[in-house]
Batch of 2 targets.
Target 1
Amino acid sequence: MALAELYTQYNRVWIPDPEEVWQSAEIATNYKTGDSVLHLRLEDGVELRFPVDPSTLPPLRNPDILVGENDLTALSYLHEPAVLHNLKVRFVESKLIYTYSGIILVAINPYKQLPIYGDTIIHAYSGQNMGDMDPHIFAVAEEAYKQMARNNKNQSVIVSGESGAGKTVSARYAMRYFATVSRSSNNTQVEDKVLASNPITEAVGNAKTTRNDNSSRFGKYMEISFDQRYQIMGANMRTYLLEKSRVVFQSENERNYHIFYQLCASAHRPEFKYLKLGSAEEFHYTNMGGNTVIEGVNDGDYMMETQKTFTLLGLKEDFQMDVFRILAAILHLGNVQITAVSDERSSVSLDDKHLNIFCELLDLESDKIAQWLCHRKIITTSETVVKPIMKFQALNARDALAKKIYAHLFDFIVERINKALQFSGKQHTFIGVLDIYGFETFDVNSFEQFCINYANEKLQQQFNLHVFKLEQEEYMKENIPWTLIDFYDNQPVIDLIEAKMGILDLLDEECMVSSAFLFSFCCV
Ligand code: ADP
Ligand code: MG
């Protein structure tokens, strides 16, 4: 709580502002406990009577001499406006995007390439102490590397922030740092392979959203293994919860996974002719967002990159062609026309061009696929019945099949990347890098947004636990005088979701009692 005696004339405070979020004001006359207004003078000279009671005194502004500090913990007053103002001053006046907050690095997304990531900068940070250099993602990476090498302790770098904040870019830089500082002269291939896993997983797991042109639609934990000499010997990747609904549905101005557009942009190449693709506008699954192009991105060029990276990972031509065949099949499946025959029945024509290409690409029998897209089989203890389904159910079945195929393909690619990054010999230590999908809210939010945001709440809790709770417990254990910081504990939010009779329990229950048929569609 703010101390009343600090609210004296000429001291400055921050007051809420509907546009600027916070605006600065100078105290015009001394405040006495019990006063119901604080007399303020805004920066444009306007006088203001700001209503207060002792518990709502506005946050005090730091003396100018402290502002611009490279560690937020050096500020006299540490609250939201102080943090925002300090970050703003560093960024706007000095183009500095990194600031420490104790052991945490805060990064601002500059949305333009800065000349601070070259190999010379990496070497400048190598071997240095975190506090001796300007804050940087490389300093955090160096700290992890040093701790690992010095104490033989495994480390993890956790990147967190809302969607579009710069997590994936930061995680990539951290990985590049490890690859560069641990590069041995005799085994350079491993580091390149570890880095090559990024463009591949991004091609199949990232997409354009309204918040980020390259938004991660899955979570990724990359464990980089080091040997006795602390050189990279391999890596292993674990992925979490791919947003499958995107395969069959995109909101306005959003896109499906990058790889589909890369493939469509390469449809004219002779080796892809047999996939019978065309431009992304021609396919339902790639055209729903209404804009298939990302400004400044050439999908055709990216396709070349994707192929090159597959090859670098040792994933041969035939594997790549299998992947592209399955992807093309998904696009054709999305264009299969389903017509309503009656209120209860639907059908797919055996002459449907896309049905036939889909079946040809996956070596399936088109009459069976046409039949099973529009019918369902019910097996009871006494009999087996085949029943027709309505058009909307058949469309759902088609989309469910597309999602299922894509999810398997994604897992399969991750599995093959992991195989390519496998190593012989014993891992001595590891550094983990966690990059998940960031918190997001759109005009329309699906179950998957709920899961993404739930994952972010859990990560935030882990952060709270680590930074605040454990630190405070340590102080209390040592009997060090300490006022408990009143940090925002998100346990109530987590409870609401995962506790007994929480949202997840209720959803489970609801799914159990609804018809098994509908349930099978919400689950795939
Ligand atoms: P997130 O993973 O948090 O959703 P990204 O890491 O994908 O966000 O960043 C979104 C975009 O912002 C990137 O595609 C890039 O254009 C830009 N960006 C992020 N971090 C940086 C950075 N350090 N320097 C330059 N541009 C950046
Ligand atoms: Mg990301």
Target 2
Amino acid sequence: MSDQTDKPWAGRFTAPTDAFVEAFTASIGFDKRLYRHDITGSIAHARMLAHVGVLTVDERDKIVNGLQSILQDIEQGNFAWSTELEDVHMNIEARLTDRIGDTGKKLHTGRSRNDQVATDVRLYLRDEIDTLQSELRRLQAGLLELAAKESDTIMPGFTHLQTAQPVTLGHHLLAWFEMLQRDSARLADCRKRVNVMPLGSAALAGTTYPIDRHFTAGELGFDGVCENSLDAVSDRDFAIEFTSAAALIMVHLSRFSEELILWSSAQFNFVDLGDSFCTGSSIMPQKKNPDVPELVRGKTGRIQGHLVSLLTLMKGQPLAYNKDNQEDKEPLFDTIDNLKGCLRLYADMMPQVTFNRAAMREAARRGFSTATDLADYLVRKGVPFRDAHEIVGKAVRYGVDNQLDLAEMPLEVLQSFSTIISDDVFTVLTLEGSVAARNHIGGTAPAQVREAVVRARSRLEE
Ligand code: ARG
């Protein structure tokens, strides 16, 4: 007789599990966070078993009540998790039998931990995706507020981080909004494949009981059931897809961070991130450091790492379930926790940010940001674009040598580069004229920004 009567597989074994193997193979340290979804899944399974006559109504009620009281215990902190019981599934099932007696042993009829864990993770991830979506939306709504407020604010637009053309800050903020809008669509698409139910696949081949998988799926709010039991217990594509969408959200947050960090430096002086989102230095009294964006940028690395972990975890696995799959949880959970934190911080921080409109305007004025406007002006007067480019290039060269912006050059100087130039040139050389002229859908003109904000608000509600 085995001396490890607590293990569900004790019947087959003659020696107890090595103590370190037990610790090494246990997942309870990290999968206990699935408890609520594990219990929800078990309750639905018990109801389905009664529905098809495998459990009596009385057995079902005992199991459901027992599980509900365990849920309460866990939420009140009255549940001692045990490593000998390996994982969240066996911990809860063992407690159920302790509490309600032998009926508890019937819960696992027609089920395996293989379909159970896949179901739990999907239920859990579905909830987390919904929370992430609302944080994303909160951040997007904040960006729209700011974009509306800054639709007339002029700043330099950059390519190669060199001043390129003037843009409106509202337009820049709307670019961030668009990145997040795609992220949100990716999460919504991923959720469709998360929300399919593995339960009923049992260990790998299905079960001999007359189960009703659609009944269970209906109880749990799944959109459908996994078609193939072998695939259902081994598939972690949904976790990879989610982590991939998460990694891309982090890439976006990291890019916002990079800009905010640059812009909050004394050299740019475009933005003040707000004291509650910065920290000081223990040695340099003048410092106000953009720690939040820096840490968000830093955390992008670990989430990209988690994506690679999950891809690598799956690449060598034969069908169907393998213990390797237990390694899906820590990367997935850490991705969710950190992504949620980063989105929350960004959604909280952005409304606190103040922009230094004067410094942005001054920076746009420097760097010949209206050079393209001058070339376009010459083109409108019949000069071929390549010649216009050459003429303006010479004017810029002169400006660099004499420390003069184009708009600061006297008309006679401008005319020395092309006699076609007349005094109407100054309206195109102003920053306002430059942005207002890019007046089409997707352009930087303040009027377009205001319309884009209106459209974005209704897209956000879709
Ligand atoms: N803790 C396990 C996991 O996370 C549960 C499934 C275990 N199944 C098994 N056949 N050993 O994957």
